[in-house]
């Protein structure tokens, strides 16, 4: 292998590609490398970024969650309605966490305990939960009454908006959880070989339930931040989010077959999705083309991943 | 007879290892040629090159003097070379006939003539002497029958060279006999058979000639197998003499450590009871399907129990789950390492610490330094051959994988009972002795060990007492002083009258 090939197909291949792409874009696209655009870019990937943290766990354990978009919308809606009714933002936040947590727990119990395929289960809950969001709001957007609620998204710390901080903290925390805790290692183990892990003493079904419950809670956080940013609970918010999140994870080298995941990869995956969209906006490319480009990026990432595992296999 | 198949100066390297270097040998027409070597000696690589799955870096494969430059499995098929792997390549939901025709269905315009399909296959199966219903689904056949179908497929494709990779590893002795008869018939038709096996009995029984590989090089080529001895071959394989691969040592046995009372479950209907003492190695022998692994899984709590209790040192073990058993001091090394033992894609270190890390992680946060120390300690203690603890476990040989799994349990605290199912399946001779040594050491420290094995010489070689299972029941209990292969086998056979049918080679310890 030539050294270039080695670099691209190695562990850090994606990071290298990302750095090169970033440099090219920064030099060629006007207004890209400005503080305002950078913050805008990060703001735009907050929802995907936060949800990707736990989707990474879900995929790494050989599961799948399609219900995240609906859960984000539903818990955002719950937060707005509860805070409007009670006059307390905290109550709204708790309501969102409860709703998200319950959706995740139900997913987990059905999948792990009743052994229903994760794809089918979450396809069902995706629709059920979206239905709940529509029923609760009668299909209309629900505006936020308390201006304090907007502040969640508008407030800044050291010049950087709060949601970006939240995303950053999630990246750090879940990166730590994946690599440095029993929970993270068990997630990778059950994704790598569920039966072997079970016989080695890992409580596989409990692990799966926890992963889904965590996913629900994290979706609730993303839902609250999203509602705050769009100043209302929207029953149709975050449609198609599940696909963007899964794309970002796969871009970041998370294996759909389970057992392989890295937080840095996922972060890069999320940023690539964000940059592609941002650049196309800056270049005034029609929104319709963005779908094509997003799809192409995903395909290329999967092809790269395939080449990489083939190279790794040959090494073995 | 002329040389039919020739490997000429074959070399093949993978990043980091030279799998084969300058290997040359020839095989005569109509010969069954054995290929032996320890795991990692290069047998699999050679077979892979022959199958067309990969290409050699240097050298060539010649058939009837003609260089075969094929680049894919399909090309190899066309050249008449078919490799039958351990994992069979059949579609379970299709019938035997459909599987045999797959890829070249007869019929007009895509419409399949089912009747013709079944009739032609039926005739062919009868012709080569395979007794399988052509309209049966593959999923309904036993492993042995599936293997027959795979061989029939090779015959239907007019194979000139058929390579069999460890064909008897999952066959019962009766099924093996049928396979051997089939191989004899193929030989008389002039087909060249390349026979890869760890089992010396089979090699001596079937093969006309033999090649031994060691560390990717040709260790020996014997054009006439009647001129070599077992000991010579073993010495060529390992590069040294192994006097006694069992090395059994007597031990003082303590009081009862494990007691199993009347356990039964979905796959083991008759309640089973037995007990093991401190320092004792108890063997379970039986034919495939006798219920030994099912018993082990029930005792360990891997499968749901209908009834029965398991008691360790006087304390009852909750029937619930593997984690409960581990906490009570009982661990299992499963039969199928690939599917139930190792976590592929993860490092040696992680595979080892998967259970024991709960003892030294603080609020779920890992102590990476301690895990590394632990991995290094057991890599050294169990003599696991690997460049580093970070190595993906999938890259290790079978013996080293088994040692990692042993390390997983040895790093646990207070293990009292070790259940080990097929301790050395697919493991080469050198590593086998090392694993036996580890078991003896553990027993000497007071552990109660339950060994399950399909290899009679192994059970007789390493255990203190044998329980023979037959059709889900314990058929006999035999103490070491009374070990007798005929007696053990007779107890293992469902019908005692069949004992005399057994070929003598199978009951000789090697």
Structure notes:
The complex is a heterodimer of chains A (316) and B (510). With 316 residues, chain A is mostly helical. Chain A has a domain at 46-239. Chain A is 77% helix and 3% strand. Chain A has helices spanning 3-9, 13-28, 35-44, 46-60, 68-86, 89-113, 118-137, 147-154, 162-180, 182-192, 194-199, 204-229, 241-251, 263-282, 287-315; strands at 142-143, 156-157, 160-161, 232-233. In chain A, the strands form two sheets. Chain A has a two-stranded antiparallel ribbon with strand order 1-4. In chain A, strand 2 (156-157) and strand 3 (160-161) form a beta hairpin. In chain A, helix 8 (147-154) crosses helix 12. Chain A starts with a helix and ends with a helix. Chain B has 510 residues and is an alpha/beta fold. Chain B has three domains: 3-238, P-loop containing nucleotide triphosphate hydrolases (Rossmann fold, 3-Layer(aba) Sandwich); 254-329 and 417-493, Rossmann fold, CATH 3.40.50; 340-413, no CATH class. Chain B is 34% helix and 25% strand. Chain B contains 17 helices and 22 strands. Chain B has helices at residues 43-51, 73-78, 96-101, 114-128, 143-156, 173-188, 200-206, 230-238, 292-300, 322-327, 337-341, 348-360, 368-381, 398-410, 429-444, 456-462, 485-492; strands at residues 3-14, 17-28, 32-36, 58-63, 66-68, 81-84, 107-108, 111-112, 161-165, 192-196, 209-214, 217-222, 256-265, 268-277, 281-286, 307-312, 315-316, 330-333, 417-421, 448-453, 465-470, 473-479. In chain B, strands 6-9-10-3-11-12 form a six-stranded mixed sheet, sandwiched between helices. Chain B is globular and about 70 Å long. At the A-B interface, helix 10 and helix 11 of A face helix 10, helix 11 and helix 12 of B.
What tags apply to this protein structure?
heterodimer; A: 316 residues; mainly alpha; two-stranded antiparallel ribbon; 4 strands; 77% helix; globular; B: 510 residues; alpha/beta; Rossmann fold; 3 domains; six-stranded mixed sheet; 17 helices; 25% strand
């Amino acid at each position: 292998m030539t050294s270039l090939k080695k670099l691209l197909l190695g562990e850090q291949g994606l990071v290298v590609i990302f750095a090169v792409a970033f440099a090219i874009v920064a030099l060629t696209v006007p207004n890209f490398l400005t503080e305002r655009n950078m913050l805008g870019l990060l703001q735009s990937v907050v929802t995907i970024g936060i949800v990707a943290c736990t989707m990474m766990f879900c995929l790494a354990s050989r599961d799948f969650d399609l219900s995240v978009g609906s859960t984000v919308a539903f818990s955002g809606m719950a937060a707005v309605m509860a805070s409007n009714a009670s006059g307390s933002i905290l109550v709204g936040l708790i309501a969102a966490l409860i709703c998200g947590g319950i959706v995740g727990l139900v997913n987990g119990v059905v999948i792990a305990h009743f052994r229903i395929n994760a794809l089918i289960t979450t396809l069902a809950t995706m629709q059920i939960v979206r239905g709940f969001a529509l029923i609760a709001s009668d299909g209309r957007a629900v505006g936020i009454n308390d201006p304090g609620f907007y502040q969640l998204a508008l407030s800044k710390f050291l010049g950087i908006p709060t949601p970006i901080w939240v995303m950053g903290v999630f990246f750090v925390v879940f990166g730590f959880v994946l690599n440095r805790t029993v929970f993270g290692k068990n997630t990778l183990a059950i994704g790598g070989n569920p039966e072997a892990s079970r016989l080695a003493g890992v409580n596989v079904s409990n692990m799966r339930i926890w992963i889904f419950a965590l996913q629900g809670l994290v979706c609730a956080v993303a839902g609250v931040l999203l509602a705050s940013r769009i100043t209302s609970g929207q029953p149709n918010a975050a449609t198609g989010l599940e696909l963007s999140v899964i794309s970002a994870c796969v871009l970041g080298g998370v294996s759909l077959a389970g057992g392989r995941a890295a937080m840095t990869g996922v972060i890069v995956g999320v940023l690539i999705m964000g940059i592609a969209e941002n650049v196309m906006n800056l270049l005034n490319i029609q929104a319709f083309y963005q779908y094509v480009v997003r799809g192409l990026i995903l395909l290329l990432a999967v092809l790269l991943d395939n080449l990489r595992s083939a190279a790794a296999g040959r090494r073995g | 007879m002329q040389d039919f198949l020739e490997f000429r100066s074959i070399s093949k390297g993978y990043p980091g290892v030279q799998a084969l270097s300058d290997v040359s040998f020839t095989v005569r027409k109509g010969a069954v040629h054995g290929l032996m070597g320890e795991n990692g000696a290069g047998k699999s690589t050679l077979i892979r090159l022959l199958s067309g799955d990969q290409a050699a870096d240097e050298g060539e494969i010649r058939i009837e003097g003609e260089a075969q430059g094929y680049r894919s499995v399909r090309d190899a098929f066309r050249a008449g070379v078919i490799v039958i792997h351990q994992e069979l390549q059949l579609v379970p939901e299709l019938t035997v006939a459909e599987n045999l025709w797959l890829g070249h269905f007869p019929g007009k315009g895509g419409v399949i003539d089912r009747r013709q399909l079944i009739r032609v296959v039926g005739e062919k199966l009868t012709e080569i002497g395979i007794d399988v219903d052509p309209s049966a689904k593959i999923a309904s056949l036993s492993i042995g029958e599936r293997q027959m179908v795979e061989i029939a497929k090779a015959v239907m494709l007019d194979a000139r060279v058929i390579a069999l990779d460890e064909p008897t590893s999952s066959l019962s002795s009766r099924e093996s006999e049928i396979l051997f008869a089939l191989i004899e018939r193929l030989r008389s038709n002039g087909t060249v058979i390349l026979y890869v096996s760890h089992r010396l009995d089979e090699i001596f029984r079937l093969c006309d000639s033999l090649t031994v590989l060691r560390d990717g090089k040709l260790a020996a080529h014997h054009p006439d197998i009647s001129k070599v001895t077992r000991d010579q071959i073993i010495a060529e394989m390992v590069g040294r003499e192994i006097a006694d691969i069992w090395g059994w040592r007597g031990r003082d046995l303590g009081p009862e450590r494990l007691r199993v009372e009347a356990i039964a479950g979905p796959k083991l209907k008759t309640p089973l009871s037995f007990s093991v003492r401190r320092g004792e190695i108890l063997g379970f022998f039986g034919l495939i399907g006798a219920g030994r692994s099912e018993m082990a899984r029930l005792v360990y709590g891997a499968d749901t129990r209908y009834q029965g209790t398991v008691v360790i040192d006087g304390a009852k073990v909750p029937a619930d789950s593997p984690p409960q058993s581990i906490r009570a001091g009982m661990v299992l090394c499963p039969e199928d390492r690939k599917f139930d033992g190792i976590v592929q894609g993860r490092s040696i270190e992680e595979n080892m610490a998967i259970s024991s890390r709960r003892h030294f992680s603080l609020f779920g946060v890992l102590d990476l330094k301690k895990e590394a120390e632990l991995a290094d300690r057991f890599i050294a203690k169990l003599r696991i051959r690997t460049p580093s603890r970070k190595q993906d476990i999938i890259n290790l040989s079978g013996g080293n994988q088994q040692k990692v799994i042993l390390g997983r349990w040895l790093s646990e605290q207070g293990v009292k009972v070790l259940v080990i199912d097929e301790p050395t399946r697919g493991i080469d001779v050198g590593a086998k002795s090392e694993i036996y040594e580890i078991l003896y050491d553990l027993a000497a420290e007071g552990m109660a060990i339950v060994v399950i094995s399909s290899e009679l010489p192994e059970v007789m070689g390493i255990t203190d007492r044998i329980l023979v299972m037959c059709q889900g029941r314990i058929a006999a209990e035999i103490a070491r002083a009374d070990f007798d292969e005929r007696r053990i086998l007779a107890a293992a056979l469902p019908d005692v009258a069949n004992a005399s049918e057994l070929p003598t080679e199978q009951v000789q310890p090697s």
